[in-house]
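User: If only I could read backbone structure tokens as easily as an amino acid sequence. Those tokens are not coordinates but codes from a learned vocabulary of shapes. Could you go through the record with me and say what the backbone is doing? Here is the record:
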Amino acid sequence: PPKCGKTRTVGSCLRGAPEWFGTKGVYVEIDPDGGGSMLAEDRVNWERLTVDPKQYIADELAGIIQHDWKKEGFGTVFIDTGSIAAQTLLMQIAAKCLFGNNIDLGGVRQPTQGDYTGVDTTYFKLLNLQKEMSQASGINFITTYHDLEVRPEQGQAGEVHGGPLLAGKA
């Protein structure tokens, strides 16, 4: 859940295990609430980047992921959080009305089923890009997420399941 120490824990990895994560990292602050929870002695090891809210977040993240951080002496890229990134991506895709008639409620286009599929496809493309870059360069990618718990509809059989909060509950 939010505010349980995800950022603080990951933020300490450079200090705690420099042989695995390197001594310098790139902190991609998507959740504007996140970076302040890092300990002061860890903050100095991270170069803070933010994404431009006026740009398509998938392109911003792809550029960050594909950058040659290893050449600049960085060992880890920390994206905080994937949950906020996916939700931003959903809003941006819905605003484009690519998958149907997105109803406008107060200046916000409501997502359609196709928009959720678009987020899934785009987000998994970013995850695969992280994997490729990590395998090619040895750079570490760490992404934090808020948690998601899905319960069966009232009166329906089923188990509670969960995972990372992205866009939607599927």
Observations:
- Residues 113-137 form the longest helix (25 residues).
